[in-house]
Amino acid sequence: MRLRMDRRAFVEGSVRLGTLALVGCRVTMHDGAGLKDSAAVASPSVRRSLTSSAAEDDVELYKKAVALLKASGVWQAQATLHSNFCTHGNWFFLPWHRFYLMYFEEVCRHALRQAGESDTFSLPYWNWPDTGRKIPGIFWGDGNPLFNSSRSMGPNDTYADAACGDGTLDSIRLINNFLDFGGGRAGAQQEWGGSGQLEGTPHNTIHAATGGDMGALASPLDPIFWLHHANVDRLWATWQASNPHMIPSYPNAQDSTAQSRQGMLLDGNFWLNFALDGFEDINGKRFTKKVKDCLDPARMAKPYIYDTLVPKNDHREGSPAPDGTHEPYSLLGNVAPKPSLGLSGSGTAKGVLRDLVYVELKDQGLVIKVDQTNKIISANINLSPAIRHYITRLSDKPSYTGSLTLLVEKIPIPTDDLVHRIALDFYANHPNLTTETDASDPQFLSSYSFFAHTHPGAPHTVSIRIALNQPFLRMRAAKVEPKKALLLQILVKDRLLQTLPNLDFFSSLHFRLCYIET
């Protein structure tokens, strides 16, 4: 696995996680490699929405923990850890950040414990629509440890509906393919495989629009980062709890992403057993964590669940069973996966789903028009007879396992301050697209913003996956579904309403359509 050259410098730098007693990655159950990943021995803590009255104590404890971490220097060390090891743009994005959040949560508890405060802290999450798509009020105010002065957005600014509106989130929840949801295949932790839709938006769009520290790899310097990522993790947990395709499938041989550059098969078992790097114990010893050990949050080393996923008939919430033992709620135990999935409660797999159908448009679509005046880039993508056949089968029935995906490739990354301002909004076959058209339009597909592509060795271009099932079903209902060709229209927006770049910058874009049925 190819990793960045500056990691040893991080370990040996002036701020070392291992020399700071309150890193807290091994507060309990020392096993030489961080918290022990085994069946949970305690009922999981509950992460709650920051807008709920039940989260008031956790919000206050979070303020205290952040102040303590900033005073000790650990706050900066946590951000450096993210800068050096974070994973974006592939199918490891969600697992890496789930581990990262769990260890940070324990860092906070340890800091609170050392200061004589309550250590019953659970990390709240920020559900963006609940605050009117605005930065919550708890993150503002001079002298407030949760305030960060570097933000581009102000307290009254609103995130775009395309970024985190209810419609956008509903479409993401209905994605039925892990690669489209969580990211494309990659053979190494920081190898580009394509952003999944949850990462491209709302994850990237919130980061980029917030700006300042949040728009860069050192985004954990802004306290809003952790609650933002807790909600991203909650959406993944919600998707897991309702979707039988919880892990990547065994790819069809015709899938051009089926193998790594070294010829290794990139199937679900490879993903499950991949060892993620970038976690350290309190002695500064670095260790890895396998993806399969984070599939069920209720069975992680420090188990947790989200308030939106606690079963309505489960009144235990931290209370021991009558025999004195704890019987934690299990995410996987409350899912009815397909028999071929074969997941056990420990997060291992007896088998993985197999792609039975894989159809890919052989000829890549190319940009055919750049409209600088209206800020629209257009591309024509012919729908082959095979693709059209499977499009007619699109369905929103729970038993349907087909996935139609648009892959947008060779997206050049702006190299100046524009990188955090530009949003690409995707539409299909729209007869009158303008800058006023928004995500409520039935021909809206998705949105994408750039984030965290400035580290050494990062690619100069990126790729994204856009799940087309729900957009095509909406267009079908509105009687505007593409028939023989997909006219893809990309509306280029500038959040700060300043001068946009010459759109020829994006003229090298390539497009592919593929259909997968499992």
Listing every helix as H and every strand as E from the N terminus to the C terminus, the arrangement reads HEHHHHHHHHHEEEEEEHEEEEHEE
For the secondary structure, the number of strands is 13
The count of domains is: 2
Instruction: Kindly report the CATH topology of the largest domain.
Output: di-copper center containing domain from catechol oxidase
Mean pLDDT: 83
Could you estimate the helical fraction of the residues in percent? Answer: 10-25%
Distance between the termini: 29 Å
Name the CATH superfamily assignment of the largest domain.
Answer: Di-copper center containing domain from catechol oxidase
User: Which class do the helix and strand fractions yield?
Assistant: alpha+beta
Strand % is: 15-25%
Total of DSSP H or I helical runs spanning 4+ residues: 12
Query: So, CATH architecture of the largest domain?
Result: Orthogonal Bundle
Biggest sheet statistics:
9 strands, antiparallel
List low-pLDDT spans: 1-34, 36-41, 314-329, 333-349
Radius of gyration: 22 Å
**Main CATH class of the largest domain:** Mainly Alpha
The 3D shape can be described as globular
